[in-house]
Amino acid sequence: ETGVTQSPTHLIKTRGQQVTLRCSSQSGHNTVSWYQQALGQGPQFIFQYYREEENGRGNFPPRFSGLQFPNYSSELNVNALELDDSALYLCASSRTGQLRTYEQYFGPGTRLTVT
Amino acid sequence: ILNVEQSPQSLHVQEGDSTNFTCSFPSSNFYALHWYRWETAKSPEALFVMTLNGDEKKKGRISATLNTKEGYSYLYIKGSQPEDSATYLCAFKTGANNLFFGTGTRLTVIP
């Protein structure tokens, strides 16, 4: 296993509600990225946090927001849930450096179902 | 949104067979190409990060090659074993921090 943990494992919410997903990064990693994987699709990049700042964002609306804490753990918040938000949400931690691209280490994911 | 395509979508091979699959990506704004193995009910596992045209990387029976000029990467598995059964994902990275994933190749190795 990678050492990246996510909670909760599964979650059921109602349309219009808000949800917070959590991710603890691997020791020594300063960057967390979040991905959404809908059924039959590859993971889609939501955003990345580096040193507590958003450091890149994919094609997701503002109701998807995040935080990174001083210990490099992270939260993904989704407001006004829609049925299409039902997906597996993955977080990945990595190191960020200027001279090389580092591997990302993924957590097991949170399965969100919106009814 | 950049288009990353993987083929085939799924593959069944006999134990001991060698196999390979393809990842196609845009040939412009290339920064890196990642390969992951994703077993059911587990986290995706990083296999390779490739950055240079002509790169070849190897981990045990798995190897990968990279052609950035024509926009493709091949993943090879030599002597497939049942434990190789998984979905293999590639992801293309531009200079920005976004990884664009393909939909994966699902490999099943039949004992």
Summed up:
By secondary structure, chain A is mainly β. Chain A has no helices and eleven strands.
Descriptive tags:
heterodimer, A: 115 residues, mainly beta, 7-stranded mixed beta sheet, 0% helix, B: 111 residues, 5-stranded antiparallel beta sheet, 11 strands
Helix and strand arrangement:
The complex is a heterodimer of chains A (115) and B (111).
Chain A: E1 5-7, E2 10-13, E3 19-24, E4 31-37, E5 44-50, E6 53-57, E7 64-68, E8 74-78, E9 87-94, E10 105-106, E11 110-114
Parallel strand pairs in A: 2-11
Antiparallel strand pairs in A: 1-3, 3-8, 4-5, 4-9, 5-6, 7-8, 9-10, 9-11
Chain B: E1 5-7, E2 10-14, E3 19-24, E4 32-38, E5 45-50, E6 56-59, E7 62-67, E8 72-77, E9 86-93, E10 99-101, E11 105-110
Your description of this structure?
The complex is a heterodimer of chains A (115) and B (111). Helices cover 0% and strands 50% of the residues of chain A. Chain A is mostly beta strands. In chain A, strands 2, 4, 5, 6, 9, 10 and 11 form a 7-stranded mixed sheet that branches. Chain A has a 4-stranded antiparallel sheet with strand order 1-3-8-7, with no helix packed on it. Chain A is globular and about 40 Å long. The mean pLDDT of chain A is 91. Helices cover 0% and strands 54% of the residues of chain B. In chain B, strand 4 (32-38) and strand 5 (45-50) form a beta hairpin. By secondary structure, chain B is mainly β. Chain B starts with a strand and ends with a strand. In chain B, the strands form 2 sheets. In chain B, strands 2, 4, 5, 9, 10 and 11 form a 6-stranded mixed sheet that branches. The model of chain B has no long low-confidence stretch (mean pLDDT 93).
**Oligomeric form:** heterodimer
Indicate the proportion of strand residues of chain A: over 45%
**Percent helix among the residues of chain B?**
under 10%
In terms of structural class, how would the helical and strand content of chain B be classed? Answer: mainly beta
Total E-strand runs of chain A: 11
Number of helices of chain B: 0
Q: Which stretches of chain A are poorly predicted, pLDDT < 50 over at least 5 residues?
A: none
Q: Which word captures the global form of chain A?
A: globular
